[in-house]
């Protein structure tokens, strides 16, 4: 199919070659090319004809090569994004560590491994919510109970500390 346009490319090269003369600048070449395009089939052979046709052919083949080498992930219909991301099981498999205790618990179904180099994700977490939203109960306490890393937990009322002490059966957290 691409070969059908090759005569047009050669014609454009021959017309351009007719516009090129020694000691002319680009502006003069463009003016002569405009005049030549008024009579598109008045082509004459010049010393520049073969060079121009070859240059135009190389540019045409390069353009086709670039067209075919591009990754075509257009995602028709979802150009502006989609809410579909994936199910929790497949995403958890990608980010979790096989050893259960070496994970940061983020939700009931999603855990992220503590080895940042493996999954290339940051492990810094900021939990924000109003009073009584379950920040300590659903995030801080389960991760504290795993005792798998150092943590900084701001707990002004001390609820997370008290519940952690009850669960571990000790009188002090280190």
UniProtKB/TrEMBL annotation:
CDD domains: TrwB_TraG_TraD_VirD4. Keywords: Membrane, Transmembrane, Transmembrane helix. It holds the Pfam family T4SS-DNA_transf. One of its GO terms (cellular component) is membrane. The chain crosses the membrane at residues 48-68. Signal peptide: none annotated. This is Type IV secretory system conjugative DNA transfer family protein. It comes from Mediterraneibacter gnavus (Ruminococcus gnavus).
């Amino acid at each position: 199919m691409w070969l059908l346009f090759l005569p047009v490319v050669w014609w454009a090269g021959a017309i351009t070659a007719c516009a090129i003369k020694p000691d002319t600048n680009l502006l003069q070449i463009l003016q002569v090319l405009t005049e030549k395009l008024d009579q598109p089939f008045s082509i004459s052979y010049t010393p520049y004809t073969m060079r121009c046709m070859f240059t135009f052919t190389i540019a045409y083949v390069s353009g086709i090569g670039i067209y075919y080498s591009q990754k075509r992930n257009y995602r028709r219909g979802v150009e502006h994004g989609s809410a579909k991301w994936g199910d929790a099981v497949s995403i958890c498999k990608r980010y979790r560590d096989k050893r259960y205790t070496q994970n940061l618990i983020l939700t009931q179904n999603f855990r992220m491994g503590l080895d940042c180099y493996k999954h290339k994700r940051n492990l810094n977490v900021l939990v924000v919510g109003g009073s009584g939203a379950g920040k300590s109960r659903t995030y801080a306490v389960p991760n504290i109970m795993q005792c798998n890393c150092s943590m900084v937990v701001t707990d002004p009322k001390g609820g997370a500390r008290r519940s952690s002490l009850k669960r571990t059966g000790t009188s002090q957290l280190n």
